[in-house]
């Protein structure tokens, strides 16, 4: 599949991508290379990476604990210390090999270390292939508040190799599917229909189309002043629910995609209330999402906490919660407002 060109870097696909990576690294004459992995990707992805990547440079592996709860400043300090002890300098390269936590945190670590060193993203989850690794957002969580600290910084290259998807559970694949549904509802309904109609998905095509959509949006609005906000469809309520579940000792953590899927049902409902999105389309979205993810277990007792998390959404302006809503499929409106009662109604709609 053809390379997709982002603003300052290429996104290469499949086996030939490793040759591009090898050629690039050789041409740049880096002083040293660091590979950031977590427990899972060290076991499951590192062997494939090493089979495909050849370098004469010295390469050190830095391993962090796997999981969203480690996407924090303490982990960054650990990585910065390790790089310092291992002699990293401004001509070093950091390669991130992992899911969204690794690519977001690794990009943040690299772009702040000695005021910024090069990094390359090799996403290994569906979620990071279609979203996190592309677009230049880097960052970490602040407590349970997602991605509160970070900066825009572009990698030198992204390598998308779907072979890594074989290392994932069905639940993790479903998590990434939520972002593809988002691209479908906002830009290309074919993607959503394909997920609904096909039990056996052509995942390579879906990834490629998703990256193309995301890249076009980011090219138009790299720092989310305008159209890039559309990529937050489902994420306003979704992030609040994800943070609430992460923080609650009684709830099992949700995957990002499970939370965003709930958010897309609620925000489709709000789209009907505020923008008149046809109700049959809202129902269709809800049924499709429940079919894939099941009904996630929460009740009206949880609403007040979820509403509290909504107050911290990064898109809020002057304390008002900001939504991307749909007039209909492939037709969105940015900067929409909903009242607290409307938001509660949307949660009721999900649970009904
Ligand atoms: N994940 C949303 C964005 O990259 O803007």
From TrEMBL:
- Name the Gene Ontology molecular function terms of this record: 3-dehydroquinate synthase activity
- This enzyme's EC code(s): 4.2.3.4
Q: Which UniProt keywords apply?
A: Cobalt, Lyase, Metal-binding, NAD, Nucleotide-binding, Zinc
- Cofactor(s), by name: NAD(+); Co(2+)
| A Pfam family hit | DHQS_C
Show where the 3-dehydroquinate synthase C-terminal domain sits: 176-316
NCBIfam families named in the record: aroB (TIGR01357)
Q: What is this protein called?
A: 3-dehydroquinate synthase
- Please give the organism: Tenacibaculum geojense
Please name the taxonomic classification of the source.
Bacteria, Pseudomonadati, Bacteroidota, Flavobacteriia, Flavobacteriales
